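Q: What structure does this chain adopt?
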Amino acid sequence: MSNSPKKFFDSMTVYFQPRLIIMLLLGFSSGVPISITGDIVTWWLAGAGVCKTSIGFFCFMTLPYMLKPLWAPIVDQMNPPFFLKRFGQRKGWLLLCQIVLILLIALMGQGDPKDHIELMGLFALLVVICSATQDIIIDAYRIEFLNASEYTAGASVSVLGYRIAMLVTGSLGLLLSDYLSWPVVYLILAGFMLVGLVTTFFCQEPARVTIREKKSFLEWVKISYLGPLRDFAQRKGWQWILLFILLYYFGDQLIGRMSRVFYKELGFSGTEVAFATKTMGLWIVVVGGFVGATLAFRVGLMRAMFISSVFHMLSNFSFIFMAYIGHSLFALYLTVTLENLSAGMMSSCLVSYISHLCNRSFSATQYALLSSLSSVPRVFFSPLLSGPLAERFDWVTFFLVATAGALPGIFILLLLMKKFPIDGKRVSPKKL
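A:
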């Protein structure tokens, strides 16, 4: 017991390391484009009288985040263009993305959406592509820059910076739109990318194992695209690892958007739900990330993943509690707290786990592939299953089914803990 305060203090001091502060600022840079191409542009289009159908098509702008593994090998293995190669592989590409993002965000705000909706859509798409590319590089930078023991903490501070950026740009953009023209608003919002640009300029280029040589185009494709897959397939239990990542969030993803329908049917107002899920819930997710990181430091990463997964599965019973008692702000806040706290714990642990799995020579490509895999059920299965299940069953049964949906991932995790535990070590790739 006497060592408990010391262990807790040790787990907290990691957050004040310069490396973690850099990840906080890069996380902020990663979050800046999200609201700009999401809530802000939707508010602008609606105010300009653009039809709802056209506004709805802007939802497809998130697709590049799902498709980023397609071009991840390019920034993973190719030198940055122009003079930027002097800054190094990661810093050079990151500086290029951030400079282009500043220009594109500023240009995106200069048009009239009523007359040039197609042009605005093009700029928004380019912003999202550059944003997804920035995420690829930041994820790789975090893997190569941090020590393995700092991965979970690095994930939590990155999420904190990301959420702060979304909150600041989202709220400030809406506020300024009441007093300034949209071109000026977008110029101001573009300026927030300077946080990441300055951080990237002064931060250190991480050490990494490079396999880049002067080869033919076909050999380059083989190494850059097939190399990460072949390298990962050499890991023992790789099939179980992929299945686990695919099913990790499955129980939560079965609920999908039906939680909002559930709140609506219980009679909660939009204001009540917005405060609980957006304002309060946003910060609870951040707290959950720090709890997950501290837990991983204390008991080990895979045990922390198991505890977080079981906690999140059990948090579904708070929905069942709400179904029985009906409209209750206490029940709403309790449900959002338990759900978001456990979700934040799961997220920081998964980011750390995937980071441990990546080879430094292919970190950008492998992380992009594995992280995208965890989103597959949300994108493809949740829309097909959550609605029909909610239609077929009452709410209590629906949430019981969603709870059961978390069990396969937990069982596979137990298998991985026993037979294929991670050791945090990464080796250079074998000859390809």
